[in-house]
Amino acid sequence: MAPSDEGTLLRIFMGDSDRHEGEPPYKVLVRRAHDLGTAGATVLHGPLGFGRRSLVHSAKLAELGTDLPVVIEIVDSEDAIRRYMAEVGALVPDGLVTLERVRIVRYGPRR
What pLDDT, in 10s, does the model give residues 22-65? Predict the structure, then answer.
């Protein structure tokens, strides 16, 4: 069995039409996570979703400008995620942010 560590999964749900100083916040959030040395970050674009306003957004050719869902996932130690949360508050004025405990299992050598 592989060794494991306890960690925290941060998920940020937002729309891809959101902007922070003219740029998609998910790009700024991933760059900042990298700058802070977090273990990694992934941005997922969803083809369908709805949020607090109950507006369904879908990826259809006729609706290419639609505000599709974006999820940013970052997994690291609880302390690293806690330090990163200050960035999230400044860059995500309208979105859902969740935290959950996870067991991190590494399958490759650490760098």
Answer: 888 899 999 999 999 998 899 998 877 766 666 666 655 445 55
Is the domain defined by 4-105 classed in CATH 3.30.70.120? yes
Better-predicted residue by pLDDT, 75 or 47: 75
**DSSP three-state, residue 17:** coil
pTM: 0.79
Distance CA 11, CA 100 (A): 9
3-state secondary structure the chain: CCCEEEEEEEEEEEECCCCECCECHHHHHHHHHHHCCCCCEEEEECCEECCCCCCCEECCHHHCCCCCEEEEEEEECHHHHHHHHHHHHHHCCCCEEEEEEEEEECCCCCC
Q: What is the dihedral of CA 54, 60, 63, 69, to 10 degrees?
A: 40
